[in-house]
Structure formats: structure tokens, C-alpha cells
């Protein structure tokens, strides 16, 4: 009889040395607790894949409050404030840059800015190639990369 390959389950996780299963005899005895399902690999610390973000986290985030005050069109916070290059600079240095090393940009922060339409409602309408700051241009680049 011919063998059929490709049937059954395939483990798509990216295995790393620290993630290989440890034999049951090497584990210390613990009191029995209900087995919790393993988190998906993208939400593990140190993973390069973006982790998911919940609606509750988006609503409670400080960037959502800044967006409501400055550029969100669906906000009932009153009249929008004028464009501030200082706000762009502050968001760039506190949310979009990483201190030291070759670490990736914090994708959850970029996702929150993407959901709030930071690029469409704040960066692009207020972009002037003559007077744009480095932070303004880099913020636009990061947001466009998130869209792609």
C-alpha cells in the first residue's frame, strides 16, 4: 500500500532551544491544578511576531485619550486642538522608538496608533515638506510600514 504524506496535524510553532518540551521526570512535583491552554507563540515574550491586543486595552490606553483630544473624528471630546509638532515629537520618542540595541519597534503601540488613524487624521493633513521635522517624517514612515 502506498504511503500518503501530509495527513495529520503539523506543529507550525517556531521552536527555539528554550521551548523544547522537558521530560515529565525532570519536572518538580506540583499540586494538581487545572490545565490551562498554552498561549499562542506570538504572545510569548521575546517573540518577533506581533501579539494581539484587545478592545479593552485599546480603550484604556493613553494614546486613545490623546487621539480623542487631538485627531479622532468620532470623538465627543469637543473641538480638536491645533496641530502640535511637540505632540508628534513626544509620541515618537515615548511610543515609537526603542532605547538601545537593535530591538524592533513596539508593535502594540503602533497598532494602537493605527486604530486611532494617527497617520490619516493627524500626520498626513499636517505634513509640509518644507517645515516637517525628523520625528514627523519617521512617524509617517513607521505608520505606513504598519499598513503594509
From TrEMBL:
It comes from the Eukaryota. InterPro entries: Aquarius_N. Residues 63-147 form the RNA helicase aquarius N-terminal domain. Residues 26-52 are annotated as: Disordered. This is Intron-binding aquarius.
